[in-house]
Amino acid sequence: MPDDDFLTAQAELFGSVFVVTQHLTRRTDAALAVFGLTTRQWLLLAVLGKWFPDRSPSLSEAAQRYGSSRQNVKQIALGLEARGFVRLVPDPADGRTTRIEMTERVRVLDEPAAQVRAAALLRDAFAGLSPAQTFTLRDIVRRWLAGVYEHDDTTGGR
Known about the structure:
Oligomer: single chain
Structural class: mainly alpha
CATH class of the domain at 27-109: Mainly Alpha
CATH superfamily of the domain at 27-109: Winged helix-like DNA-binding domain superfamily/Winged helix DNA-binding domain
CATH architecture of the domain at 27-109: Orthogonal Bundle
Shape: globular
Number of helices: 6
CATH topology of the domain at 27-109: Arc Repressor Mutant, subunit A
Helix content: 55-70%
């Protein structure tokens, strides 16, 4: 069993991550309003672009990478579809499976003005950290995510 100091540190970090998430979500929602997107919608687009750059994943595949249920990802994707960022299409080989296709509209996020806004948001989000601390934090969070993902009962540890 962990000692009290270690358990206290874990509890503080655990709670702090949720507080940071609240602040970042609020700021990101404000920055994305110009595109008619929410943070959750943007995150799904980012997941699709990172993990499925050359194919359209099923809702289940996207949900596994997004870290949420298939139903939740479907609701987010429906919002994105209404805004023209994705299309939900039946899989040609299995009509029971729905795939998420990104549309050309996603490219608006790659335009110079959008990139300037994104850079400003990131600069503000990490203003309290030096470049070296930012790289260290990135490495720690990568390891933490791998551990969380490995022990996630909803993904079967995959």
